[in-house]
Request: fold
Amino acid sequence: MIINLLPSLLLSAAAVLAAEPLQLNVVPTPIKSYRLLAMSMDDDGYIWCGSIHRVVHRYDPRTGTVKTLEMPADSSASSCICAGKKVYILGQNYPKLIVYDRGTAKFSEFSYPSAKPDVWYGTPLIADRFIYLFDRGATGLIQWDTQTDTCKPIAYPYETVLPSAGHFEPGDQAIWCKLWDYSTGQYVPQGVARFDVATAQFTGIWPFPKDDAALAEFTDPAHTFFLPWTLRGKLVPFDFNAQRWCRFIDVPRFRELFGFIGGSTRFHGKDYFSLSTYDGDQTGVDGKPYHFCNVILEFDPATRRFDFPTLISPNAYYQVSYSMATADAFFATGSNIMETDGSLNQARPGECVFWQSVPIQK
Reply:
């Protein structure tokens, strides 16, 4: 069944979607990249996404048009975070935070309070003023004041790896930090740490469980988030109200379709995870060089149902790696990694598309 196929604004090859619960539209762009990175929507409805190519892209989901801005710094842009008229651009180990002012159309830079910054991800704007950046290099967590463009390092008090990412839970008024060890390429989970926004203090750490023999099922989806056991094909629930780990959930099609579960986006009560054939070394679960899949994993906590929305296109294979959501719309990006001989090459700077729940406005 073909669903939500946009007419002339779609791929000329008539890309279609598999019949899956989340109905998505495919919108082609002029961007060529091996993949687009983390993105954010500004107050005017434009999506800003990062890349490895010393540029950021501004995408209009209403028209499908793109504006590409070259950064003055020799840096990648692993994440864009929009706050008011500014776009904060995180450059991984680039020693400064890059800021683009949409009003003046100018870039500026601010030093991190870190001896060896390694900043990939941050939170969206909290309390209309602050964003929190995860520095896996030295600091752990940085509070950035978007009104004054000043910052405060927050001491990480636990003897674990530093937080590499996390998310803000509005119902808990806390940032839940992910503690994952990436050093061996095995994505070893160590636990989660809670940072209370009101007191600006870490209030606890919960080591990752070795197994779930003594764990109970999760009972309240509204107070539970779901972390991937990345290379084990499981989701691990954490009830942040009860502050307890819950019984693991096996994801179907592990080691058949995918070997790796990536980051997630919550949209309308469901969680959407990226998937890859990576299983811990250069060869993926299909016996070929690993790559992100042309599939996302959909998990509905209310029904415990899994689905696999799939992007199918003739003569192309769009690996889907990053997604985001607003209150009304879901977005993901895909990059064509199919060579002319039909082989897949995840390093190919391919044609990029946006995969979105809202259609282009005619």
Notes: Residues 262 and 274 are 5 Å apart (CA to CA).
